[in-house]
Amino acid sequence: MPASPALRRLALRVARVLPALLLALPLAPAAGGQPDSVLPSTATAPPAPPAPAAPARPRLRPRRVPVSAELARTAFADADARPLLERARAARLAQDSALGAYDATAVLRMTVGMTVRALGRERLLLRTEHAARVQWGRGRGLWVEPTGRRTAFPLGGAALDLTAATPVPYFPGRESLWLPFDALGGVARAEVDENQLLHPLAVGAEAYYRYATGGSLGIRLPDGARVTLRELRVTARRPEWRAFVGSFWFDVERGSLVRAAYRTAAPVEIWGALDAEQRRTLGEWEERARTDTGAAARAARAEAERVRRDARATGGLGGRLLRASVTPLRADVSAITVEYGLHEGRFWLPRAQTAEGWAQGGFVRLPVRVEERFRYEGVNGTAPIPVVGTPAELGLAADDTTWWGGGSIDLDVPLLAGRSPADTTAAGRAARAARLAAREDTLVAELRLRADTLAAAAARSRAAGDTLRARQLDEHAAWHAGRLRRIARRRAACGRGDGTYVAGTTTRHDGALRIAVRMPCDTSRFATSPDLPGALLDPAEETVGDAEREALLAALGLGLQARWGPERPVLHAGLDLVRYNRIEGLSVGASATSALGLGYTAQALARFGVADRVPNGELSLARSDARRTVRVGAFHRLAVVNDDRGAPLAFGASVANLLYARDEGFYYRTWGAELAGSRASTGPLGRGGPLGGASILWRAFVERQRGAGRAPNTQASLGRLLGGARFGENVEAVPLTALGLGAELARTVGVESAGLRLDLRLRGEGAFTSRADSVGRTGYGRLTVDASLARRLGGAAVGLAAMAGTSAGALPPQRAFHVGGVQTVRGQWARAEGAGRVGDAFWLGRAEAGFAALTVRPSLFADVGWAGPRGELLRRGRPLSGVGTGVSLLDGVVRVDVARGVWPERRWRTDLSLEARF
Asked: Which residues pair with 578 in a beta bridge?
């Protein structure tokens, strides 16, 4: 059943308020406007035309808090901050008529990853690159000519064409502060507007920000002139997701932005933001309906009714199910950097821009990175730049403007770039051209048939009196006919040997920028263009230098935060706080979280298990700068014994427990206090920073540990109903008090779709203990090392994994190592005791071979492992072993294994798991 219009509008509003997601969707339409993007040029069949443009609807009026005398007084921490802001504000809106033209190469790289757990492997969902020559002339518009393009979807997908999103370094009125996630960004707006992101340099921003000057820097130019830069440190008055904190460097004389590092002042909770936006929007339309007259009042009443319909629909069953299934839904922009270069001794033009962020829906987290780079061939050169005129002036049909709200851009001429490398012989090139021409003839015939069929259907509807349907069919027929004309235009131009042809025109930013696209006739060498970085899937190939960027990001530390201003607590309960295991049975939780300002966040979490009827909870106070987090808290929780591999309390394990009663976690109870911290990984999205982009977790703790009971508290499961499956026994923990420290480091090197991936994990823990059964023994230490190697060999893929751990001192049973089960030795069962299964040392080996596909990968595997006394670690003994076959979906996000135990158990078992190694 198709989604209702209200739910579709809900999805659009999610995209509009999800900054990090918009980093991954630079072609998303602005609210109330039409998309600048078009269909991919690699399509092999004519796709359905886009929906006809809707009539323009009234927009919300700009609104902002007036800058009172008190706000103005408290906005500036020192006397130099105000004049520096005023110079920057004037330069931002000034138009330097001396800059008349430029010729540049623009490179765009976009990367989207995916991870399931905090230290889980970060998979690469998408990496795409686009290069183009951009030529701009004052009063003449912008010409874009693509020169390179390549896309990798390791987990499956189609090619992308980002020509319509080609970065533009400058046009009159361009916003100097790069906001790639602002749907209406690109054009400088004079005043701050609460309906959009809160611009820190706009007029009226003093009501939302505080300013302080920082360091200064002198730059000597080749001609001997000296340029002085001054830092302006900006902090938001409240931890508001629409606001920013950052370090901005300006040319003191001109006021021009030279470089900056900034981020949003707080993450955004999407569902709460949508509800607030809905209430605010409804209130404004109702007010305008009361105060306006005539057509304006009628339009306001219509908008208010539309918002009410959306609220009723999204509050219905479909909307509630959507919220329950995708929760939490949040996002953050963790870092943006911009760098400008000085040209002709006068013009500051952007050189490099990078943005990082993430979006989280349920247990899936999507890191996103967007990079742009500009290289200038000439500024104010003498080469003539043609005027970007009307479609007719460029030889285009007037109907070509039908779909894109004042502009048409045709990149949907498929078949031009074959998927095989370009032939080196004349005969090979001729054969390839003949194949492409034949495919294009087939497409033209299909387009013509569709256009004629739609036109005939429109005539029948008109004769039947259904004028609305007839108009829709006419528009679809015109769209197909327009494609036919554009293909004919390309054939004519390329047949004459022109080399390029005018693909179409479009506008951006409400018509502020006119763009014409000139496409090359031969796009077969796009993937090997010298304008693109050296290797698409090599994390070392960054379009922006890591060393320079890290120097900028150093300013975004814990000391640069939004001011103190506690926000109303956000209440949350969802699937991410639901779990099922043999101790708690069904365990449900709820949390309350409040952003306090200065980087602090307070959270209270409560949880109750139906089977054990033991309440658990945590109180914590964390401080974060979006890359690093430090947290202090008190807790009473159910802890996991075998937490070295897998996540027994995670969603995937809970599903397996409920389905077939195969809980492979062992548990104990603990209460106490901890000081913990984390550093986020850059994974395949890039490298740089300490430890080369590794994820780091650390924890200092004092806690009281005790048993959770040996017998399961529940035997309820689907497997119990169908086949008598039962949960096994738990371990018997030793009561003790522990004072200790633990740390975990994880690093991914390479991307398997590029040939090789290495996952490394190192974990250590040590504690002083007080336990009644071990007089004189005062502590323990444990260390585990885990490495996984995945390698593509043609159409095959090979995976090898090795893991080992040892300990020192008196290791209590609740911190022992366990082997057996889907996370260690498939085909064997995880048990609380038994030879080769439990001990204070262990080792594990895995081997796997299958197809190289990452979307659906069948494979064969063999596992072997042992656990026992550390004194017997190197002695001979028969280890646990198992073999089988498995199917990995989406590079191990979901996996199904059918395994046969070899020793000691010789039984078949089937397992469903999330976050698999391979």
From this structure: 588
Amino acid found at 513: L
Residues 713-747 have pLDDT tens digits of: 999 999 888 888 899 999 999 999 999 999 999 88
Residue pair 502/518 in contact (Cβ under 8 Å)? The answer is yes
Would you state the torsion angle of the CA atoms of residues 892, 898, 904, 905, taken in this order, to the nearest 10 degrees? 130
Reduced to 3 states (helix: H, G, I; strand: E, B; else coil), residue 213 is strand
| C-alpha span between 111 and 32 (Å, rounded) | 27
The Cα 736–Cα 703 span in angstroms is: 8
User: How far is the C-alpha of 866 from the C-alpha of 874, rounded, in Å?
Assistant: 11
Task: Reply yes or no on whether the pLDDT at 414 is more than 50.
Answer: no
C-alpha dihedral (281, 287, 293, 299), degrees to nearest 10: 20
* Beta carbons within 10 angstroms of residue 764's beta carbon: 16
Q: Which of 900, 890, 820, 908 is nearest to 861 (CA)?
A: 900
Question: The tokens of 78 are what?
Answer: 């020192």
Contact in structure between 834 and 817 (CB atoms under 8 Å): no
Select from 514, 511, 501, 518 the least CA-distant residue to 387.
Answer: 514
For residues 148 and 162, is the Cβ–Cβ distance under 8 A? Answer: no
- DSSP code string of 774-809: -TT--EEEEEEEEEEEEEEETTEEEEEEEEEEEEEE
Q: Identify residue 706 by its one-letter amino acid code.
A: R
CA separation (Å) from 163 to 369, 498, 507? Answer: 18, 20, 13
Q: Which of 28, 5, 33 minimizes the C-alpha distance to 18?
A: 28
Q: Find the range with the poorest average confidence among 140-154, 524-538, 579-593, 668-682.
A: 524-538
The residue whose two tokens read 């042809």 is 501
CA gap 623, 591 in Å, rounded? 18
What pLDDT, on a 0 to 100 scale, did the predictor assign at position 591? Answer: 94
- DSSP assignment of 234-249 equals EEESS--TT-EEEEEE
C-alpha triplet 896, 900, 902: angle, nearest 5°: 145
* Spatial contact of 262 and 556, defined as CB atoms under 8 Å apart: yes
Q: What is the chain's mean pLDDT, rounded? A: 82
With a CB cutoff of 8 Å and minimum separation 6, the contacts of 758 are: 748, 749, 750, 787, 788, 789, 790
Q: Is the dihedral of CA 627, 633, 638, 642 positive or negative?
A: positive
> Strands (DSSP E) along 478-599, which ranges?
500-508, 513-520, 570-572, 578-581, 585-597
> What kind and span of H or E run contains 313?
helix 294-314
Q: What SS3 state is found at 260?
A: strand
Enumerate residues 6+ apart whose C-beta is below 8 A from 846: 799, 800, 801, 802, 861, 862, 863, 864, 917
Taking Cα atoms as reference points, which of 13, 42, 401, 28 lies closest to residue 180? 28
d(CA 183, CA 456): 39
pLDDT digits (tens, 9 = 90+) for 541-551: 444 456 677 77
Q: What pLDDT is recorded for position 22? A: 41
Q: How many CB atoms lie within 10 A of CB 35?
A: 15
Compute the 3-state secondary structure of the chain and give helix, strand, coil in percent, each to the nearest 5.
Answer: 25, 40, 40
Angstrom CA distances, 823 to 199, 645, 658, 698, 914, stand at 49, 6, 18, 23, 10
Tokens in use for 348? 């500051």
Contact call for residues 868 and 875 (beta carbons, < 8 A): no
State the CATH architecture for 570-914: Beta Barrel (2.40)
Can you tell me which residue has the tokens 């609305």?
468
Distances (CA, A) of 458 to 398, 461, 474, 615: 21, 5, 6, 66
Report whether 873 contacts 844 (CB < 8 A): no
Q: Which residue has the tokens 């199904």?
A: 896
> Under a CB-based contact definition with an 8 Å cutoff, are residues 297 and 288 in contact?
yes
